[in-house]
């Protein structure tokens, strides 16, 4: 069998090759042999699941929620209306549609269809998945629509007119699927970062060059305006605009690692590197100022700006002297605070923050020479976010949610406090449930918070089937939210749910993340195991009724947990995972994550990774908790090879396991609601069998 990878340990700088790993052939996503293996595994799993009528019942429950017509249709505010992308039973691939604010306020808004993806897919014989658009400010009439065939990250791009609701005849088109994107300079010019052939992609398979493409010319002839380095994760250029769309500067960046960047400003016909920490970068323009954000302490101009703060410089001064403009503090976090994200209206910036894992939203303005921050009047003790904002007015929408309260959408035009605009219906009975927060003590003594959603008055006698969910990477926070599918399919049936706030995430700011990366990544795995053990000690559950779940980085998390502490759990859902960490940089876009995990080609760093890589930790003589692994054939980010190889090795050792591969979806799995419902049902049914049925039988 021919494989597209180097074949010896020497060639891999110590990384396992075919002689050491007999399942490398599964790294070929769509080879005949690999797909035959996938079909056999899928048939085995589905034959087992389908024989129990509960599987169809669970699928129907999930589909009813996913297809519900009364769920909140979240929108983006544009000059010509409110836009929404919607999928349901009648529109499985989805429709891009718009309405007015007046109509949106009603229970049944009148929607104008802009793009019917189902009709487009049928006409062209493709499994089109809508991946968003890049539109020309300020009116956003002309857009480049991104489409993926089957859900992979790679897309094609086509020019689309939002007014005529048609693809532009003879317009901009990039039919060669690739990573990267475009941004508009003006109606006849695009900045394009794509795969332009040999010598234009990084080791992580992302573009590192940008071209300026003029209408009526060939893309291949477009002049290159910026070039990073093949060793970068990615690189590109974009335009810095005010909220009304006016171009202020041309910016370029080089992704030195997943978490580090170098930035450049186009000035006097050359690129000038900005004097910024590698973990700092532009945040946006507000009230005549350029804002920067930093994830590390920034010593500059005789002062120190703390990590996670916002810093401002006068915009005109910065354009004239980008490294000498006077810097002032806009906002700095207090203890256990961190900023999450935000948006800007025509006149104000809004930033959501976490304060001890509780949400707040701040309105930021520059008034009388000072930065003024005001807390927006939104619910207490909830997870809050900025949903969308208008660049032409002060209109803005916010979201609020928690474990037991359906999500609420809030609106203000800037003249007063936000008002409720939409409320999601209840999809499960939360009246008999409650939420508590606890702390576990990790191996090194660190206190790790976690939330528990459980039946009210639940006896802490260790007999409750419990699902523990975690992520713990890339500074991504895990926050309370209304999980309708989990509530209906698991909590209503008597299960409990735990959400862990592990180091490596972002719940307490950049330091919480940076304390558990690279040589310290084992801390994340220790934290997760500690939370599970703490749940047992408190009498929430017992190892025979404790299951764990995570996807992507979370799939790696679950893999480390069930290989390092197999006795602590009786179910493990390993979703779209990383798993073979000694070869992860060669699989999919794994090389882009070296900043998080380290490089297995470097002996010192290989030692960190070898200590936990789950694929190599599956060994003979250990009783693992019959994991359920699932992946997606079209996932070109976290490649299905990781899950495939794990299942193959478990099979070789005679271990119990289940495997399923979605053969159409991308990184998140499922291109339509039917497939998403099926994936959800597979996981919940597996948990019921492992954590409920087995114990009832005893």
UniProtKB/TrEMBL annotation:
The keyword Cell cycle does not apply. Keywords: Hydrolase, Protease, Serine protease. It comes from the Bacteria. Residues 20-415 form the Peptidase S9A N-terminal domain. The keyword Ligase does not apply. Residues 1-11 have a biased composition (Polar residues). Residues 1-21 are annotated as: Disordered. Residues 489-687 form the Peptidase S9 prolyl oligopeptidase catalytic domain. This is Prolyl oligopeptidase family serine peptidase. It comes from Qipengyuania gelatinilytica. The lineage of its organism: Bacteria, Pseudomonadati, Pseudomonadota, Alphaproteobacteria, Sphingomonadales.
